[in-house]
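quick one if you have a minute, typing this from the bus. theres a chain ive been looking at and ive put its sequence and its fold in token form underneath. please have a look and point out which stretches look like helix strand or loop to you. anything you notice is useful, everything is just below.

***
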Amino acid sequence: MDKLVRATANNGDIRIIAAITTEMVEKASKIHNCSPTASAALGRMLTAGSLMGAMLKSENDSLTLQIDGGGDAKGITVTTHSDGNIKGYIGNPNVDLPLNAKGKLDVGGAIGKNGYLKIIRDMGLKDPYVGQTPICTGEIGDDLAYYFTVSEQTPSAVAVGVLVDKDLSIKAAGGFIIQMMPDASEFLADILTYRLQEIPPITTMISQGKSIEDILNTLFDDMNLKIYEENTEINFKCDCSRERVEKVLLSIGEKDLQEIYDDGKTEEIHCHFCNTKYEFTKDDIGKLLKEAKSS
């Protein structure tokens, strides 16, 4: 079962958000019919989005992550909210590269390094906040750690992983964001860095049946770990609807709607996030055109 927790360690010197996201990534992978490499790349971004979504202050805030390094994945976009609902898509769900030098799925190669990681925060203000940093490795976790350190001046360790099984199902997925607070000592950071290097990958521990609490207890042994929220749900859920698509069609203006109507063909609108298709017949377009003229 997927689960997200927030925690602190060493009397508040360390802030932690960690999650198991296996079911959510499995659902997204099936919706987008992803290859193994695409599943790993999209799953890492969705996991990162879930973790960062837990940092949002207000229930009305949203966060969008975008990464495109010019690779065959053709970019990934993920949008998340504080309620745990998240949606996302990969430009090329069929991308499938040979294993990398470590024998792992080549997410970095699929993403590419010639581009940026963008974080867009919509807090209900006139303009959203946009931060971006160059892509370092394309492996997503490293790139997010670099973003936090450079753009938000918060030294962070980020791990996001997806383990794809032989039958192409998602065997394990999860991750964590660990951040040092301003008054934390360098010695503490050194100890934590050593431990992060010594523990197995998070997907290995999840596939062994370890809970997210087990994983954190292993990493923060003797560091006064305090887990203070355990039941945050994570769901792959798109908020598209026919009504929303109608509003988009109305927004293109009376002239363009008239051209679509005169063309007489059934229009099919496709949602990138969830692959839902909405069909609009000539009569449907006519009703929208009538509404546009009367407004």
